[in-house]
Amino acid sequence: MNETSIQQAIDEFKQTIYSYIHHPSLQAYTGTPVLNENHLFYLLLPFFNEEQWTEEHHESAVTAAIVSTALYEHEKIREQGGISIKQQVIVLAGDFYSGRYYEVLSHRGNFDMIRALSAAIVKRCEQQIQVYERQPRTLQEWLHAMMTVESEHITQFYTNYQFTNYRALAEQSLLYLRLQSELIAYETNEASLLLTRMLELEGVTTTTLQQQLVALEAQIEQTIAQSSMDPMLKKLLAARIHANKVALTPLMKEV
């Protein structure tokens, strides 16, 4: 697939997701749900590489994206003062999206995917809770937490459908893109608590994290080179990193 056809597939995927979670009353308060195009790209990566891709695969990928959107809605709420009506509706929106993923999969009897996404939610939330615990952690542990937050719903989807050969690439690339966007956000005081916890570590500076980006880029290049993916897709994957694209989901200070 070329870049144009890939973007078209992502746009169509996005519209399908919106059709599953559209609710006029909720969106009057919360706006259009935020979808991270980097996440959508990696959910569709096996499809782009012409793996067997059935209606079940596509629907399961949709539900994985819905889970990510639901968790993002919950992350919008800040623990500052009372909860406004808009914040209450945002919580309801996250609950609604969570219910939709379960409803879609249970209707199909796809309990394996329900278990996979439930595990992803638990692992992601466990990592996010750590930012409030103030327990001693290393930089590598915080980077692993960031990677889990960004990619766990995708890697659980891969595991459920035996697409595990894409796991390392998704984890490395999504961590790279998130860390890159965090460093950009840091310049305007908009970085998340995850980045804040990293910078609280003795000896860790933004230069340290830039060095981590350089190391991650080298890992990604090696993973791409060693993969058996289509050569055109390899070039597009490398271009997504080299173009210095950042994650499209706005960063929340609480995450």
What can you see in these coordinates?
The chain is an all-alpha fold. The protein has one domain (3-242): Orthogonal Bundle (Farnesyl Diphosphate Synthase). The chain has helices at residues 3-21, 24-30, 37-43, 45-48, 55-75, 85-108, 111-133, 139-160, 167-186, 193-199, 206-226, 231-242. It is globular, with a radius of gyration of 18 Å. The model is unreliable at 78-82 and 245-254 (pLDDT under 50).
Estimate the mean pLDDT confidence: 84
Number of domains: 1
Characterize the largest beta sheet: strand count, sense, and whether it forms a barrel.
none
CATH 2nd-level architecture = Orthogonal Bundle
State the CATH class: Mainly Alpha
Strand content: under 5%
Q: Helical region count? A: 12
How many extended strands?
0
H-E string? HHHHHHHHHHHH
Based on helices, strands and strand pairing, what is the structural class?
mainly alpha
User: What percent of the residues sit in helical stretches (DSSP H or I)?
Assistant: over 70%
What is CATH's topology name? Farnesyl Diphosphate Synthase
**Poorly predicted spans:** 78-82, 245-254
Distance between the termini: 35 Å
At the fourth CATH level, what is the homologous superfamily? Farnesyl Diphosphate Synthase
Question: What shape does the CA trace take?
Answer: globular
